[in-house]
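Lecture notes, unit on protein representations.

Consider one protein chain, 501 amino acids long.
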Amino acid sequence: MDEKIKRFLWAVIAIVILGGLWLTRPIWHWLFMAIYIFPSLWESLIVAVVVAGVSYVFWRSRKDLEAREKAVGVFVAVLVISLVILSVFAVMYPQCYLSENLRTSKITELPDIDPSAVRIMPRAVAERYARDALQYPQFKLGTGDISFLGKTPHWVYGLIPNPDGVVNFFVLKDKGAVYVDMTTSRKNTKIVEKEMQIGEGMGITDWYKWELYNRKYWVDYEDPYFVFFQGELYIVVPVVSYEYYWRFPTFYTVPQWQGVALINSEGDVEFLTPEQAREHPVLKNQKLYPERLARYYVDSFRYIHGIINTWFYHKDELQIADVPGQQNEQPFLVVTKEGMKWLIACEPFGKETHGIFRIYLLDAQTGEIQFYEPPAALIGPVKACNYVRKANPTVDWNRMIPVEPIPVITNKSLYWHVRVIPNDASGIAYTAMVNAETGEVIELKTDESVKDFLKEEYKARPEIPETGKNVTAIIIIREDSKEIQRIQLLQNQTIEVIPVS
């Protein structure tokens, strides 16, 4: 074959491959993004190519017949060694940079929890309630998150096509969202029916990330959540970008919050900066700052005294105080009288240290970081859960679990707000308030007693667990805004259809 024809064919093949990669770039985002945010990958490849190339030229000049095989061996060895060494630094350097450059302010008191928006419903129970409310065989729950209806926080789950039916993945649209009120232990579920043109769990070009990657590629997108505002349903996706820095011997990237992507039911996408998001009418009362970024930033403070200290001395080193066996880990979003906050409790470094070292608060709309250092030795969330078990030995703790310990201030004392639920998350057995100074456990059986406790109006008295109706409200988005019907399902459960104008 003529040499020119060969070159032409190779050029055509290269164009087809590059064109295919460009058209399908959302599929390869995970790969290209890994290379982009982890520079040690391409740095190691460059070093290996250079060293192997020099080695090959050296052996060829000596007429070594095995020059190519030796060069390949050098390439593999240098690639692996470089990748291991540079990766260690590439992982640590971003958090070292953040620990030195993040602005924080110290507070002497934790802000009071807003009793009207207190977080009672844990995530595991909310997901169970949401699943129990499903009446759509072709749909399942999407990723769970927190959203506000008015000023009331809810757990929200998208209604996405069930992948058990392969055709559903390609044909069906997201049907809406399920909201579970988190300010009560009772089952109060609302279903907003609204077909989304692009969304979670849809394939292939209807997938919301396909559209986002086509518009803005070199960023990461956090988990989506649904916002219902004035008869319209929106998907909100926090956006995280990266900045490059150099520190011997490698480049590294530092994540930062870039804003949010707002998607309406028609599939229109709007990218908003943090400032624009805070002023947008749809998002004024919603959390905006990314959850995973908040945790990553706080975890960075373990490098406050440098890498050597973190490896060997552990002076003032912290670790996030996660309770083993939890479905939902920190940070916890709470509504305080100073606004929405991500709360992260940290212990001193060590396997046997479970006291409180610091509690970090990140503003859920601005990302502003505050921290609280207790003036005296206080028990942390891990031990608080142990105190709950100890205080009620009659409970079968093989079947029950204390979850989501959240720090609250009442009567000038720090308490851990713990919910006790069955392993199958079928409800809330009771709420426990654990005094962080004394270890005293106060058991609360009703929503009203929890709110009274936070308002410093609680008086110890016999409590009767709440047995009222479990109400599931379905909100149907209709053009005529008329009520369809009311269906009695069970003696103790109703589905209420509410019109929306």
